[in-house]
Amino acid sequence: MTASSERRRAHVVISVELVREIDALVGRRGRSQFLEEAAAERLQRLRRVAAFECAIATPTEGIPEWETRESAEEWVRELRQGWEERLHQVVSPGTS
C-alpha cells in the first residue's frame, strides 16, 4: 500500500468473474487493498518498461565500442578478459 494516508473512492467496472476470484482469494473486505496493490505493481512495471525503452533509444553515436555489432562483441571480449585477469590476481596474489 502507498505511504499516503489520503484515500479517494473510485468507481471501477470489472467483470463479475474477476470480482468473484478476487473475493475468493482475499475476501470482500480485502478487495480494495488487493486492487490497489495490483494497480501499483502494474504501474511500476509500466514505468520500468518506459525507462528501458528510453535507455535502448540512447544514441550510440560517438561511442566506438557500440557503433557496430562486431565492435560491441570485441569490447565485451576485452572486458571479460580483463575480469578473468583481475580474478586470477585476486585468487592467486603475487603469482602474476
Short description:
This protein has helices at residues 16-26, 31-56, 69-91.
Walk me through the structure.
Helix content is 62%, strand content 0%. It is an all-alpha fold and 96 residues long. It has two domains: 41 residues; 35 residues. It is elongated and about 65 Å long. The mean pLDDT is 85.
- What is the terminal separation in angstroms? 54 Å
Q: How much is the radius of gyration in Å?
A: 25 Å
Estimate what percentage of residues fall within beta strands: under 5%
Helix and strand pattern = HHH
Query: How is the biggest beta sheet arranged?
Result: none
**What would you call the structural class?**
mainly alpha
Write down the overall mean pLDDT: 85
The percent range for helix content is 55-70%
* Number of discrete helical segments: 3
**Stretches where pLDDT falls below 50 for ≥5 residues?**
none
Characteristics:
single chain, 96 residues, mainly alpha, 3 helices, 62% helix, 0% strand, elongated
What is the fold's blueprint, element by element?
Layout: H1 16-26, H2 31-56, H3 69-91
